Known about the structure:
single chain; mainly beta; two-stranded antiparallel sheet; 1 helix; about 10% helix
Amino acid sequence: MILIYIMDSVILVIILILLLVVSLISACVASKFFPELSPFPQDHAGMGYCPYECVGRVGGLPGSCNADGTIGTPLDGECSLGTDCAGWQDGINCCKGTCRQMEKDYIGVLYCPHECIGAFGDGPGTCGSTSGDVSLSGTCETDTNCMGYEKGEGTVKCCNGTCQTKQLDWAGAGYCPHECVGTSGGKPGTCNEDGTIGTATGGECTLHTDCYGWGPGTNDAACCEGKCVQKVKDWAGVGYCPHECTGWALAPGGTCVPGTVSEEGSCTKDTECAGYGPNKGDMGCCGGKCAKKQKSWNSTITCPSECVGRPGGKKGQCTDEGIGVALGGECKLGTDCNGGTNVGCCNSKCERKYKDWAGVPYCQFECVADGWKSWEKGKCTQKA
């Protein structure tokens, strides 16, 4: 009995559904021939159609008739053209595929909401709400997404997809940081967060006038090798870019700022070495290492590897103490060696001499210790 009851109920539901479908189809068909009696909307020719097939205008989309008698797609409906929308003559337009109410921009011209500019200097989409809920650095599509946005006078804008604080350009107008021009004729991106004008220290530049704080003063900013930096004082007290500044008369550029590399440290140029200078004992970059410079026989200050101790001598034969080959260095003559008469060229090496029995300095191999008893050489013990 229960099974029969369930089957009867199912059959009854199916019959009711079929009757409803038939009645709807009949009503749609009847509305075509008797539109004044039809509960369905009328198309552009006054014929009644089901809503999904009713065309509101010639060439329009199906489903563009409205129950209230208006012609065209209602608000928030899909569209291809502005004329698809009901009320297109009265400020309704097709905006991004949807029928939307247009808004007036800051000079009173109607635009789609996503195109409308609410105030001079603002971006598209700013004619609607006054402020969004996206905080600084948050993702945005329009200025109105950003928390703190206000038409015209707001301090926040949607810049390259994120909410950022506006900066004042040279004329006092607020712009996104990447758009803001700090000087008349300057480059975009040259305004600063603190309201100052010009590229901040470390920023890119083309001219000195691009930089904030530029001027003729010794410590004013300047555009140096494409970057805004503070000038440094040269030996005469005049301000120059660091790479141009000379630390003493006739010095190369870049010698005003002390280097930081210590002795034996790796380097690529003299100015990198701590204590770099023009004099003997000052540091220089010698063979990729910072080293103390030496004075050659002709008073030229050079790296140790380049220093010549005597006329016609070999390179690398100067010493920190004076001119000539150091002890243990190769030589041809006694005058090649540094140390005066107490140092000689002994078997082609600079060596300390020894005193013979009469107190005269000789190389050890020729020195006679006892001139009274024996003339044997090489036995001296007292260094000269």
